[in-house]
């Protein structure tokens, strides 16, 4: 273990945390305001990557393809809300889980029919294809730094949107008492549709930004969705601040654990035992963290007001 390797893995963990936040933010909005458990959020992340593949192929440019892919994801989110999610408002959470799991199966097969099962790639923008020197012996890819910066920018914009705008006021009011908001003349179905579509677009943005550094393939959002639910539980259900802090925490714990836990175990175990136990314990680390936090804070780190 060297300082350079540790810093690189810290940055990689921060990058994973940013992707987790973009996915978890949409889940937090949908569940916190609409009280809908959306298991299909992972396929919206996957769709964002595939839409980005098509958009960059059509336009020949990453920068032109990105807004086109996000617009398409927004429209698909509105369509999905109107056709399926709207029928689930006020119903049992089990009904929502079953319906959104069906969406996962449908969208995954549709993706295979349209794009095939072979992994695809999104060309990295030429301007962001190099690396930058952060310190002696430490060069880090420019694109990954831009991804981190873009995620932090989105987090800042979300904070302003939720706390400083009329749309954020309606969002917070809808999360607190949706029937009262409807009684005051606000079209609650239209509000829910915009929230769901915006959450879908956030997930699609994460998928589109991850495409140049990860392979675009069916099922690419499944593991990220599981971690996103862990993020929501750790941060506090319905809390955007909690989702941000927990996403960074989970990203760092997961990345550093997979990189260094085996070496740490070799200090107290034999090399063969550490090599066998390290990867298994590393994959469990975020769930152990979740259990420990819930033991001391059952509602998460930053629970939303009851």
TrEMBL record:
InterPro entries: ABC_transp_permease (IPR001851), BCAA_transport_permease (IPR052157)
Cellular location(s): Cell membrane
Keyword Secreted in record: no
Membrane topology: Multi-pass membrane protein
UniProt-listed Pfam families: BPD_transp_2
Swiss-Prot/TrEMBL keywords: Amino-acid transport, Cell membrane, Membrane, Transmembrane, Transmembrane helix, Transport
Residues annotated as transmembrane: 12-33, 45-62, 68-85, 97-122, 142-162, 192-214, 226-253, 273-296
Protein name: Branched-chain amino acid ABC transporter permease
Species assigned in the record: Xanthobacter aminoxidans
Origin organism lineage: Bacteria, Pseudomonadati, Pseudomonadota, Alphaproteobacteria, Hyphomicrobiales
